[in-house]
Amino acid sequence: MNVTFDHIDTYYLANTLMPAQLRHEVKRAREYIDSRDIIYSMPCCLLWSHEHTHLTPDVYGAIFQCYDFDYESYIQCCRDALKWMSNAKIKHEPETKRKPVDIESLKTRLDIVTEIEQYTNLRKSGNNRYLGRCPLHEDNHPSMTVYADKQSWHCFQCGRGGDIIDFIMAVEGVDFRRATSMLEST
């Protein structure tokens, strides 16, 4: 079975790999074409396995023996991904390098009660404990508890909980990096 690469694979590569990795993959694919050695860690494994995530890397050897990968179309796919990435940088503002975030100092600087009160009303219930309706789901009664002394929260209805970063990730639907940058700006 012959496997070729198309625009969907180009998009996947551009959103998965860094430019240096793509250039390295073009070089490795060229080396494969020249030597015809089986290279098990080619991203064509990555492309194929993103739909078959139950497979482990040691299974790829058997896969490569069953499929005939078109390395020329793979090289073109990598080059198109590089081109797409460079064009995207021209259209968008260049990203500024972020300095590393000290997570522990961020957590100690912020008060979890103050941050969560921006999303739901909390009432004091005991020593260092606050109750409120969970903003992650429809909540008829207060099922979320915020522990000010531990700087953590837990919803007893949906079972979610964690620290302030976990809360922002859940309520805003963002990843860790975006959540920390949102908290840094407060």
Task: Describe the structure in brief.
This protein is an alpha+beta fold and 186 residues long.
**SSE pattern, N- to C-terminal:** EHHHHEHHHEEEEEHH
Helix content: 40-55%
The biggest sheet amounts to: 5 strands, antiparallel
Uncertain stretches of 5 or more adjacent residues: 48-61, 90-95
Number of domains: 2
Strand order of the largest sheet: 3-4-5-6-7
Q: Tell me the number of strands.
A: 7
Chain-averaged pLDDT: 76
Give short descriptive properties of this protein.
49% helix; two-stranded parallel sheet; DNA Primase, Chain A; alpha+beta; 9 helices; 186 residues
Outline the fold blueprint.
Elements: E1 2-3, H1 7-16, H2 19-35, H3 43-49, H4 60-66, E2 68-69, H5 71-91, H6 103-109, H7 112-116, E3 122-124, E4 129-132, E5 144-147, E6 152-155, E7 161-162, H8 164-172, H9 176-184
Parallel strand pairs: 1-2
Antiparallel strand pairs: 3-4, 4-5, 5-6, 6-7
Structure description:
The protein has 186 residues and is of the alpha+beta class. The protein is 49% helix and 11% strand. The protein folds into two domains: 2-91, no CATH class; 103-184, DNA Primase, Chain A. A hairpin with a 5-residue loop joins strand 6 (152-155) and strand 7 (161-162).
